[in-house]
Amino acid sequence: MDGKRTIPFFNYPALFKAQEKEIMDTLHDVLSRGAYILQRDLEEFEENIKALIGVKHVLGVADGTNALILALRAADIGPGNEVIMSSHTYIATAASAHFVGATPVLVECGADHMIDPESVELAVTDKTRVIMPTQLNGRTCDMDALQAIADKYGLIIIEDAAQALSSKFNGKCAGTFGLAGTFSLYPAKVLGCFGDGGAVVTNDDEIAESVALLRDHGRNKEGEVVTWGTNSRLDNIQAAILNVKLKTFKKDMERRREIASMYDQALREINDLILPPAPDADERYYDIYQNYELESGHRDELKSFLAECGVGTIIQWSGKAVHQFNGLGFDNVSLPIVEKMTSRFLMLPMHTALTDEDAEYVCKCIISFYRK
Ligand SMILES: Cc1ncc(COP(=O)(O)O)c(C=O)c1O
Predict the structure, then answer these.
(1) Span 12-16, mean pLDDT?
(2) Is the pLDDT of residue 3 over 90?
(3) Is the shortest distance between the CB of 134 and ligand 1 below 6 Å?
(4) Are residues 220 and 310 both part of a single domain?
(5) Domains in the chain: how many in total?
(6) Pocket mutation for ligand 1, best pick of 165, 184, 291 (most atoms within 8 Å of C-beta)
(7) Which atom belonging to ligand 1 lies closest to the Cα atom of 290?
(8) pLDDT digits (tens, 9 = 90+) for 76-119
(9) Which of 246, 269, 291 finishes a domain?
(10) Radius of gyration of the chain (CA)
């Protein structure tokens, strides 16, 4: 490839460099105050997220997986209950149901890679208590369709919005539709800290109170243990870093959408590719492109070619849907649509350190692959 560049799939050092001074000052400030656990930076972070997504309660927790587990616990989900979710999700979604003693029930996804409402309805049994949609790749599901099913069968919705902070459907943010929603603040997420982090959000006072107890050993504000709990708090120092990153967050999401538009315009004529919906494709959706996940009929060759060109790509979750992992109890599950897609998925670089020239180069490489 002429003018070869090196474009890593993700670029942690470049992202740090962009905010180095402010982050180092913040670390210095927090360390000087000795403010580590459940301190004011965490409270500020929780207020910031409330304002960002329009929700009544935000509880910073240890990570996105614990956020799911605590949300399920707070909603009293456990043995004998079934939780319906897409099989094209992170193992953590299913593991959360497993670890509260419930049964994860895996279903198909639709053309936009989100959970398929028809499959959800077909999977409802008299044991179903929860629909747990994954707000995947920075897109929010068609929540009207899922809410209609939840209403029809008396189910609750707990959203795995790990990948979708500030993404919207019909003007409402991911995480705020159901009884509770959860986020991951893992470093590569649209809002990522320098380690593990997560949050539970809810408009329900009882769920919020329960998660606040569960994340801190069952202790109330006076320090009295009033129930069984665990240790799952978002570190104050991580919250302080996130507060810095939140200052540019909305602009960062717009930049992701710009990159998605560039990919879409350059690649939409290639018949072998199925691209994610473009930012302006449907006004009901405001996607924030946590990932740019496309489908290719020549995925593995394309991935190798891009690697030769210096472009890093990733196959999400090692190219397997949850039911395709052995030993987890899904041997009898067959989901042909998801299975076909997992052999075709590929993610292009998508982050705010990517320049226009980088994105153009990625597209040029893909176009030259298909000309070969
Ligand atoms: C869809 C989804 N659910 C849950 C998680 C779990 O989050 P964490 O890694 O913070 O535990 C992730 C993180 O990658 C995710 O992408």
Answers:
(1) 95
(2) no
(3) yes
(4) no
(5) 2
(6) 184
(7) 16
(8) 999 999 999 999 999 999 999 999 999 999 999 999 999 999 99
(9) 246
(10) 21
Domain that holds residue 363: 249-371
Instruction: Please name the residues in contact with 344: beta carbons below 8 A apart, sequence gap of 6 or more.
Output: 274, 295, 296, 297, 299
Q: Are residues 225 and 255 in the same domain?
A: no
Instruction: Mark out the alpha helices in 135-196 (DSSP H runs).
Output: 143-153
Which residue do the tokens 């350059």 mark?
A: 266
Return the residue whose CA atom lies nearest to atom 8 of ligand 1: 64
Q: According to the model, what pLDDT value does residue 246 have?
A: 98
Q: Which amino acid is at 359?
A: A
- d(C-alpha 16, C-alpha 167), whole Å: 24
Residue that terminates a domain, selected from 246, 279, 311: 246
Q: Domain holding 354: CATH number?
A: 3.90.1150.10
Same domain flag for 100 and 170: yes
pLDDT in tens, 159-183: 999 999 999 999 999 999 999 999 9
Q: How far is the CA of 186 from the centre of ligand 1 (A)?
A: 7
Distance CA 92, CA 70 (A): 13
- Closest C-alpha to ligand 1, atom 12: 162
Same domain for 219 and 332, yes or no, is no
Average pLDDT in the chain? 97
Ligand 1 pocket residue status of 163, Cβ below 6 Å = yes
- Whether 11 maps to a domain, the answer reads no
pTM higher than the cut 0.90 = yes
pLDDT above 90 for 215: yes
